[in-house]
């Protein structure tokens, strides 16, 4: 049946008053998920989107087959050694999910076994079996005990990130009757594997309690509860397997407690009391706890304190402005520091007992590098991952003494991919306040810089989360059609250090949006593209960015793809009962208590600022069960866009059985990406 036009959401005005300001929200009724009218409206939007994009069916299938054809479907990760086993994940052609396995380490074996045939393979967990008959499946925790005898794992079949925790006996293969619902990510084992620590969430989906569970019993003991609604808790086991770590964090403040792993019944010991604005984390290394912190150190420094009597922080690596220290990983004889400088990631190695250090060097002008797992404490080598806009994900083992790198695997890209067919560039835009904003660009060689090329620009810009250069098989379907791809490293992210983040949050949030517009305009000025051949893309908090630039610079883009977009932020942040709201106040500000924050957020909120103007084509993609950005934000946004500017072209696509990350199976995810790419190509008028 042909649908005559897009759905028209009914209007039921609801008033909201704060700080003497009354706002009428005509689409607030869409917030009621249990209302059949809400579901009916979302389904009508889906039907309209399907009809409006029906002409792209063939292109979607072509792009899907391109992604599938470039992917080695039967594959395995590089095995990581832990104790007497090599652990790895493999995939099989035709199956949606990974299969987690291990094999015993053979006598004298030092290199990971990369051959497909692995005698003695033990399947620990098969996601395809767990997901059978389910529309959605995700793992939250996958944690093998130090002795290798137990596996703790948690599953989510709805997409709401409320997991059910189970324990499997890896000796007998039996899944125990032990079962805990509504747990969060993260777990930690005691040294002997008799006790498991895990986390549960409150009504607002905030992880706030740490529990101790005795394996094989129904015994669950609450050992820590965080009453402050700004804070989340986490739990982990140190790489040395000597301590259980309970970390408590708000957006800007931290507090850490430890429990000896061989004394799981002991009371948690506080490392340092929380101090507003001070963030710290710890890593165990012999007789000391290493402390990564920002106390009088904006870009962070490293200190240490005694394991036996935590107290004074003794300086170890002083603060160096412009070099953001992101993590410290301790091994028996070395430390590896993950850092960020000049918009690029890096790794620094320090030998135990030495003040000398060296930074690993890499040949490309743009790249991303980081540590990869490394469960072994007693080792003189570490595993790293390396990628760039043109280099597929690569896994290296690094000898920390000789500094030699051994390539263990590079992600296969089938179909004759050659990195030399593509070029990557770093350019800079100038923001309205004079700040230089980095842009990472990749294009197929031969693309003309005369303004005629189609282009896609991506941005995020929140939570100090950096969008570093990365390789994407799916992106090749754009590049090979002549599309230029760019990442705008806008403020609010962490690409240029802590100050970069501070200048794009709370009452400086507008810098995120104006930086992105400046980056788009820079692409046009440098003749990479033109405004009528440029699409913008962003998701989650990057979806807020998409909504904001649609209002402030609609003429700069031909289309906007907003994925799980946070486009009604003021309404959400004014409601403390919603998931995440209270914890988010240190990122966005508290508009309940502050009239200034209220006015500032209202001035940039995409939903609040839809006006009668010519908008670019917009596609909003969301998920019904998303607990991070609720489905009704994009649903209301699209409804208001249609009401205020009915001549525009706006589409809403809701995954009715998924969460924040969209479809869970890899083939479903590829189909979703093929849908997005086909829409982008259609907007760009690129076949």
UniProtKB/TrEMBL annotation:
Q: Which residues form the Peptidase S9 prolyl oligopeptidase catalytic domain?
A: 470-685
What PROSITE patterns does the database record attribute to this sequence?
PRO_ENDOPEP_SER
Keywords (alphabetical) are: Hydrolase, Protease, Serine protease
One Pfam family, please name it: Peptidase_S9
Q: Which InterPro entries match?
A: AB_hydrolase_fold, Pept_S9_AS, Pept_S9A_N, Peptidase_S9_cat, Peptidase_S9A, Serine_Peptidase_S9A
SUPFAM superfamilies annotated for this entry? alpha/beta-Hydrolases (SSF53474), Peptidase/esterase 'gauge' domain (SSF50993)
Q: Which residues form the Peptidase S9A N-terminal domain?
A: 6-410
Whether Protease counts among this entry's keywords is yes
The record's PANTHER family line, in alphabetical order, gives: PROLYL ENDOPEPTIDASE-LIKE, PROTEASE FAMILY S9A OLIGOPEPTIDASE
Query: Which family would the database say this protein is a member of?
Result: Belongs to the peptidase S9A family.
Name-wise, this protein is: S9 family peptidase
Task: Specify the species.
Answer: Actinoplanes subglobosus
Give the lineage.
Bacteria, Bacillati, Actinomycetota, Actinomycetes, Micromonosporales
């Amino acid at each position: 049946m042909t649908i005559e036009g897009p759905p028209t959401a009914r209007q039921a005005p609801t008033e909201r008053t704060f700080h003497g300001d009354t706002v009428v929200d005509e689409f607030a009724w869409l917030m009621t998920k249990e209302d059949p009218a809400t579901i009916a409206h979302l389904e009508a939007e889906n039907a309209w989107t399907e009809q409006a994009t029906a002409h792209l069916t063939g292109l979607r299938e072509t792009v899907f087959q391109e992604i599938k054809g470039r992917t080695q479907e039967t594959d395995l990760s590089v095995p990581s050694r832990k104790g007497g086993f090599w652990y790895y994940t493999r995939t099989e052609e035709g199956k949606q999910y990974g299969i987690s396995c291990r094999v015993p380490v053979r006598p004298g074996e030092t290199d990971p076994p990369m051959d497909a045939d692995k005698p003695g393979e033990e399947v620990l967990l098969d996601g395809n079996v767990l997901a059978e008959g389910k529309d959605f499946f995700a793992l939250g925790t996958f944690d093998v005990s130090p002795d290798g005898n137990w596996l703790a794992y948690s599953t989510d079949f709805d997409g709401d990130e409320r997991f059910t925790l189970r324990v499997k006996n890896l000796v007998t293969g039996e899944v125990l009757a032990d079962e805990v619902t509504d747990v969060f990510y993260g777990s930690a084992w005691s040294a002997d594997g008799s006790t498991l620590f895990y986390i549960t969430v409150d009504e607002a989906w905030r992880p706030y309690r740490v529990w101790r569970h005795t394996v094989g019993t129904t015994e669950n003991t609450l050992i820590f509860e965080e009453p402050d609604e700004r804070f989340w808790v986490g739990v982990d086991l140190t790489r040395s397997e000597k301590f259980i770590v309970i970390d408590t964090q708000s957006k800007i403040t931290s507090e850490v407690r430890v429990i000896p792993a061989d004394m799981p019944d002991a009371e948690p010991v506080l490392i340092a009391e929380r101090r507003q604005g001070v963030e710290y984390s710890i890593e165990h290394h012999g007789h000391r706890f290493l402390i990564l912190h920002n106390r009088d150190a904006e870009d962070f420094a490293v200190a240490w304190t005694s394991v036996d009597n935590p107290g004074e922080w003794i300086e170890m690596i002083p603060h160096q402005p412009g070099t953001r220290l992101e993590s410290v990983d301790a091994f028996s004889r070395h430390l590896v520091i993950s850092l960020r400088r000049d918009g690029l990631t890096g790794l620094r190695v320090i030998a135990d007992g030495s003040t000398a250090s060296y930074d690993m060097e890499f040949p490309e002008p743009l790249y991303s590098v980081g540590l990869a797992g490394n469960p072994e404490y007693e080792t003189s080598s570490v595993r790293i991952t390396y990628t760039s806009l043109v280099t597929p994900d690569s896994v290296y083992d690094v000898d920390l003494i000789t500094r030699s790198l051994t390539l263990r695997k590079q992600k296969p890209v089938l179909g004759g991919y050659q990195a030399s067919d593509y070029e990557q560039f770093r350019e800079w835009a100038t923001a309205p306040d004079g700040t230089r904003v980095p842009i990472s660009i990749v294009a197929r060689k031969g693309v003309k810089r005369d303004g005629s090329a189609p282009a896609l620009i991506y941005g995020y810009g929140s939570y100090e989360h950096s969008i570093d250069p990365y390789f994407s098989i799916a992106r090749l379907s754009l590049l090979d059609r002549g599309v230029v791809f760019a990442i705008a490293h806008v403020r609010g992210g962490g690409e240029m250090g802590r100050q970069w983040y501070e200048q794009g949050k709370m009452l400086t949030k507008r810098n995120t949006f104006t930086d992105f517009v400046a980056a788009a305009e820079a692409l046009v000025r440098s003749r990479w593209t033109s405004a009528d051949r440029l699409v913008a893309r962003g998701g989650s908090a990057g979806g807020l960015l998409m909504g904001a630039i649609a209002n402030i610079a609609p003429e700069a883009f031909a289309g906007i793809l907003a994925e799980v977009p946070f486009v009604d932020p003021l309404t959400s942040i004014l409601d403390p009962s919603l998931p995440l709201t209270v914890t988010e106040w240190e990122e966005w500000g508290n508009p309940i208590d502050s009239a200034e924050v209220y006015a500032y957020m209202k001035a940039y909120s995409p939903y609040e600022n839809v006006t009668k103007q010519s908008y670019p084509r917009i596609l909003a993609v969301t998920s019904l069960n998303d607990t991070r950005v609720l489905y009704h934000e994009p649903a209301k946004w699209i409804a208001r866009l249609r009401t205020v500017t009915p001549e525009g072209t706006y589409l809403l696509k809701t995954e009715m059985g998924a969460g924040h990350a969209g479809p869970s199976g890899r083939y479903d995810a590829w189909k979703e990406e093929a849908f997005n790419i086909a829409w982008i190509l259609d907007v760009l008028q690129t076949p």
